[in-house]
Amino acid sequence: MGFFQAIVSFVIFSCLSLPHAIANGNSFDLRKQELKCNMYQGKWVHDNSYPLYNSSACPFIRKEFDCLKYGRPDHLYLKYRWQPSNCRLPRFNGQSFLKRFKGKKIMFIGDSLSLNIWQSLICMLHAAVPNSNMIRQELNNNSISSVEFQDYKVTVMLFHSLYLVDVDEERIGRVLNLKSMKNGNLWKNVDVLVFNTWLWWYRRGPKQQWDYMKVEEKIVRDADRMTAFRTALTTWAKWVDSDVDTNKTRVIFQGISPSHYNGLEWNEPGVKNCLKEMEPFSGSVYPVGLPEAAYVVKEVISGIRKPVHLLDITALSQLRKDAHPSFYNGFKAMDCTHWCVAGLTDTWNELLYAALLS
Ligand SMILES: *[C@@H]1O[C@H](CO)[C@@H](O)[C@H](O)[C@H]1NC(C)=O
Ligand SMILES: *[C@@H]1O[C@H](CO)[C@@H](O)[C@H](O)[C@H]1NC(C)=O
Ligand SMILES: *[C@@H]1O[C@H](CO)[C@@H](O)[C@H](O)[C@H]1NC(C)=O
Predict the structure, then answer these.
(1) What are the distances in angstroms from CA 5 to CA 2, 9, 123, 308?
(2) Ligand in nearest proximity to the CA of 75
(3) What tens digit of pLDDT does each residue of 279-337 get?
(4) What is the pTM of this model?
(5) Is the CB of 59 under 6 A from ligand 1?
(6) How many Å lie between the centroid of ligand 3 and the Cα of residue 247?
(7) CA-to-CA separations, 142 to 158, 192, 198, 210, in angstroms, rounded
(8) Is 247 touching ligand 3 by the criterion CB < 6 Å?
(9) Which residues, in sequence order, are CB contacts of 227 under 8 Å at separation 6+?
(10) Phi (first) and psi of residue 20, to 5 degrees
(11) What's the 58 CA to ligand 1 centre distance in angstroms?
(12) What phi and psi, each to the nearest 5 degrees, are found at residue 56?
């Protein structure tokens, strides 16, 4: 806590010295000071210039996320901008993104929340260059979906992986191997890697994608799920330190995405989903605090020696109980886990863009 407060007061101090830097016309100092700002601390403000694109004109939105197409009547959720307390996020510029990443590959690796942010980034880039050539491909036996902006030689990929670590088909059944991450060899030469895993760690019954877990060389039926999550993340963290050349590859971890099925969390006891939520939670402090998994993520990342950026979207997304599809998807199934596209995941990409610029 002391460390955290130290950062906060440091940021406030830089902010106070801002007019001095402007007076001296010292834009370099100014830029440095902006980077010291914690982008993830702030509030949601209404902004009529949002959303960043017209979702009906984006050819790639899957039926899980296309809320307007499936009849969502309220549009206010599209009109919010994230305003950090001590600086401003750079406005997303799709053309300059494509120019900056010319010749590069960007890969999102993880579960359906990776799919969610990947779709949003493609729509944001497509909106900037709607008439440029795009090639869509499924690769590696459908574990990779890829969209190439051919005129810019930028490829934005999605690697489907629920746990990051391996699930091996063995004679006894599917074994979740917490200490092995064979796909790392496919990932490590990509220019920008954005990892995420969490959603599937507590799933049981038919939704559980493994039959046994391998822990410390022992095959077990089950184990404490949070401990297993931590072990798997640590396997990933050790791989970053041993295998990734961070001079060539930027490594990002996309933080825990919150869901909204329990109104107690936002002071509406008895509410069981996000169907009627049309506005963000007001205020910048969500009543229940961060989920335990978010602390596990922070701890494991703080143990990595190489530079890894945490795309720390948990707290700011907790405030967005209004930004889920609820019933407005192609399945008419209640979903307060994923996010409408356009919508919140565009902000995640604005934050990703800001992190990649620094
Ligand atoms: C959004 O795109 C659709 C399809 O291209 C178009 O019909 C519609 O007029 C656009 N809406 C706005 C507000 O630009
Ligand atoms: C491709 O995936 C399918 C379904 O998961 C699997 O049955 C098949 O063995 C895979 N093929 C290869 C070459 O890995
Ligand atoms: C990365 O760059 C730093 C600073 O230039 C250098 O000291 C280090 O050896 C480089 N690492 C690799 C793996 O090339």
Answers:
(1) 5, 6, 38, 22
(2) 1
(3) 999 877 899 999 999 999 999 999 999 999 999 999 999 999 999 999 999 999 999 99
(4) 0.89
(5) no
(6) 6
(7) 10, 20, 21, 20
(8) yes
(9) none
(10) -60, -45
(11) 10
(12) -70, -20
